[in-house]
């Protein structure tokens, strides 16, 4: 475990200081942006690359969620700087956005990735690098959750595992990709305060359903192929309880400041993928707990992880990025 974990952190985690030097000024400028025509600019962003039916009036009455207060709270809790441009829309407007985005009815907010804005060019709103999010009033914990999705793209070098191609996937690769995405949701829900039962229920009943639906639709699978995928992914669903319990123990032991960058580094590295080595992110979590759990050397191993993360600029103490 230590050798591969060290390699994952080294290969999959960008250096925090270098990322902040590279992006901080752009992020600060974007998150402080104000415009009398923001509704029109947002509609343009979503319709870039082809009219998707977004109208400026979808965003009427919006509120900014990336306030100075929320940005400060996020940084104090996780030791990381958020890059998320995030707005709250009226409930009646959210229903229209939900429909145009083809989102499940239960969703109360959504992080739209950079790929959704690859044809959008704006001097300040750099959504094609950072993405952005929209929340509804039903979302009780919007900013932290979606911000973690957003910053993972910046800090995690194996974020490409979220990308799907129109190709024939073998079982091991498909499972790996689904586990990677489910683990991302697990992390966001756990460190923002949801309890184990809530997380397990959401992962099984909502996110696994969405994963299957996306695969069926994106890869245009027929009835026979859908049955095969269901069989392939059934063990993933059955493993969720054990993985959530293990992650909850890790969270309690390491705290969010260490857990977030550590979980950003889990999953196969680009070098492993090139060798067709599709390691299970769920197994990474289970092995990580086992590695940390030995009572006699528990603190030694926590300090080892702390030292390894610190070499990538992630420190388990409050840092002030804008001195």
How would you portray this structure in words?
- This protein has helices spanning 2-12, 16-31, 38-47, 68-78, 91-100, 127-130, 142-155, 171-191, 196-218, 223-254, 256-264, 270-274, 281-293, 298-310; strands at 63-64, 86-88, 109-112, 132-135.
- Helix 10 (223-254) runs parallel beside helix 13.
- With 323 residues, it is mainly α.
- The longest helix has 32 residues, at 223-254.
- The chain has two domains: 1-14 and 156-315, no CATH class; 33-155, no CATH class.
- The protein has a four-stranded mixed sheet, with helices on one face.
Q: Topology, please?
A:
Layout: H1 2-12, H2 16-31, H3 38-47, E1 63-64, H4 68-78, E2 86-88, H5 91-100, E3 109-112, H6 127-130, E4 132-135, H7 142-155, H8 171-191, H9 196-218, H10 223-254, H11 256-264, H12 270-274, H13 281-293, H14 298-310
Parallel strand pairs: 2-4
Antiparallel strand pairs: 1-2, 3-4
Helix pairs in contact: 7-8, 8-9, 8-10, 8-11, 9-10, 10-11, 10-13
């Amino acid at each position: 475990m230590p050798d591969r974990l060290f390699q994952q952190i080294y290969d999959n985690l960008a250096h925090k200081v270098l990322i902040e030097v590279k992006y901080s000024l752009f992020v600060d400028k974007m998150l402080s942006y104000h415009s009398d025509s923001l509704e029109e600019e947002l509609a343009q962003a979503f319709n870039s690359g082809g009219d998707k039916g977004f109208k400026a009036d979808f965003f009427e009455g919006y509120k900014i969620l990336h306030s100075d207060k929320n940005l400060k709270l996020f940084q104090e809790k996780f030791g990381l700087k958020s890059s998320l441009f995030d707005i709250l829309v009226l409930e009646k407007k959210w229903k229209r956005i939900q429909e145009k985005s083809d989102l499940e009815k239960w969703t109360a907010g959504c992080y739209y990735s950079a790929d959704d804005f690859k044809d959008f060019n704006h001097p300040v709103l750099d959504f094609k690098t950072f993405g952005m999010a929209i929340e509804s009033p039903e979302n009780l914990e919007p900013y932290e959750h979606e911000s973690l999705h957003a910053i993972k793209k910046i800090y995690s070098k194996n974020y490409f595992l979220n990308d799907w191609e129109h190709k024939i996937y073998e079982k091991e690769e498909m499972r790996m990709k689904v586990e990677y995405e489910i683990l991302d949701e697990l992390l966001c829900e756990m460190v923002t305060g949801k309890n184990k039962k809530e997380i397990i229920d959401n992962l099984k009943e909502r996110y696994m359903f969405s994963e299957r639906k996306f695969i069926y639709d994106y890869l245009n699978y027929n009835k026979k192929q859908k049955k095969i995928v269901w069989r392939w992914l059934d063990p993933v669903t059955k493993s969720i309880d054990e993985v959530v319990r293990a992650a909850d123990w890790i969270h309690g032991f390491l705290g969010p400041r260490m857990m977030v960058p550590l979980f950003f580094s889990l999953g196969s590295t680009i070098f492993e993928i090139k060798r067709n080595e599709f390691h299970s992110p769920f197994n990474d979590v289970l092995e990580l707990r086992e590695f940390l759990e030995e009572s006699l050397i528990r603190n030694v191993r926590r300090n080892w992880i702390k030292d390894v993360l610190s070499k990538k600029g992630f420190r388990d103490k409050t840092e002030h990025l804008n001195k």
